[in-house]
Structure to design on (226 residues):
């Protein structure tokens, strides 16, 4: 099976930078996703990493190290609307199906 | 349509009742996924379709759960003889192709099922 671990909750201040970590153990590897989910809404796609390194997309960046089974999502210039759950999901080798972690609830305060 | 559409958005069922949840994926999307999400948890995989073929149903929690996608577009998740532990949000997602590099998977807003 797959084991995906991310912190349950984080808090940060508006305007600051926050890093949300995700560690995983999987047989083979076929990509890692980050999704944002506001309460009562659908998860929305943020990023996809399949090769090692940093992918930058506006205020959000995602990093992957396959050898360490580790990823992080970096959010810069935090805004109140960034308060949401952030879901890490991994596809094992040969599979199309993402397995999700429990999600990290991020609270941004003024 | 513009996105993944699910209906009903909210369903209250009496224990023992059968329910059917519908998913309209984005037009032309080959892959379709069903997930179950309990409050405060991440989505848990239920089943996966590639066109009309159900390639993986390993996540269905019991034989009371059944999913179909007969024409490779709309999908229905059916739960027979609902139990209280079935109360959750049921999320449908679709993707344009079958895997490999960088497919974005798009989620619907979910069907919120409460069994009383």
């Amino acid at each position: 099976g797959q084991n995906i671990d991310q912190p349950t909750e984080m808090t940060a201040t508006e305007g600051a930078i926050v890093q949300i970590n995700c560690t995983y153990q999987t047989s083979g590897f076929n990509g890692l996703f980050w999704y944002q989910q506001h309460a009562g809404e659908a998860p929305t796609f943020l990023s996809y990493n399949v090769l090692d390194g940093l992918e930058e997309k506006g205020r959000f960046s995602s990093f992957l190290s396959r050898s360490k089974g580790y990823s992080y999502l970096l959010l810069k210039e935090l805004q109140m609307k960034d308060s949401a759950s952030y879901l890490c999901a991994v596809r094992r080798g040969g599979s199309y199906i993402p397995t999700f972690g429990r999600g990290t609830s991020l609270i941004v305060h003024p | 349509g513009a996105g993944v559409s699910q209906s009903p958005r909210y369903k209250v069922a009496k224990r023992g009742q059968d329910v059917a949840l519908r998913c309209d994926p984005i037009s032309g999307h080959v892959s379709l996924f069903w997930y179950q999400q309990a409050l405060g948890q991440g989505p848990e995989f239920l089943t996966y379709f590639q066109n009309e073929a159900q390639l993986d149903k390993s996540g269905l929690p019991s034989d009371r759960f059944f999913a179909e996608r007969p024409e490779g577009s709309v999908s229905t998740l059916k739960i027979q003889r609902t139990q209280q532990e079935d109360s959750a949000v049921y999320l449908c997602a679709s993707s344009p192709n079958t895997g490999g590099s960088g497919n974005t998977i798009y989620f619907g807003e979910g069907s919120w099922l409460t069994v009383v």
